[in-house]
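Progress narrative, work stream C.
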Amino acid sequence: MVYVEHSVSFKGDLKTAWDKLVDWKHMPDWDIFIDEMHFDGPLKTGSVGRMKSRDGHHYVLTVTDLKPLDNYSDEMSVMGSKFVFYHEIKETTPGEINMRFTISAKGLIAFLFKYPINNALEQKLPILMDNFKRQYEESLQQSTK
């Protein structure tokens, strides 16, 4: 099984951070895995989207659970393996946000390529989350000017 987890904390507002997290139209701006993302409407449990990865592959992504202002999970199948992406966002103290992502995978590809997949995700997940944090903080600074 593949399993990678990373957290990041930053100053901000839970609602604004949540809105940025679920804004699928702008996910490619900060998500280093995504080149294009499309859903037929706002994210909700059962939403099915189409994603083009930065390496040119196309995937179907299904939102499996969504609890507004708290967490959501989605999943995709890749050659007999199921990848699950869990996104959680919490206000730990007033004005302090903690965001945690986990990526897990089960199945043949996950079993055969566990170590290279884990290594790649362990290197890239912090970059993805730092991108989110940086862009969120920049947009917050611009909105207060």
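Work stream C, second folded protein:
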Amino acid sequence: MSLSWLGLVVILVDVPLQFYFRFLGRGVENSGVSFGWLAGLNTWLVVLIYLIFILWAGRKLSQRKKQLAWSALALGGLGNLIPRLWLGGVWDYIYFAPGGFWFNLSDALITVGVVLYMWSEIPPA
């Protein structure tokens, strides 16, 4: 299964889980972007940031070497954009005790994209 399909599956699982855990009251609302960055910004400004980011990452998909990284970043951004439009914020339902922070599967996909991008920038030995 390619990362694009895996990312799509993550979105199809993550978005319903965000609604479900929000309904149960388990987790925290994230009014910022991934991992709570830029919290406190107007919802529509954050939506605009997500859209610009998704479109920018989508244009970078033509760079073959970094295609997996950009796919993960765009799909993770999309996975957080959908609940933001319906709920006014992203719901983080996974708690990472050693770091003391909350996240969701879309945040994890964004992190995978960042790691893949950084890895693709390392010159061959």
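The longest helix spans residues 3-24. No further action is required on this item.
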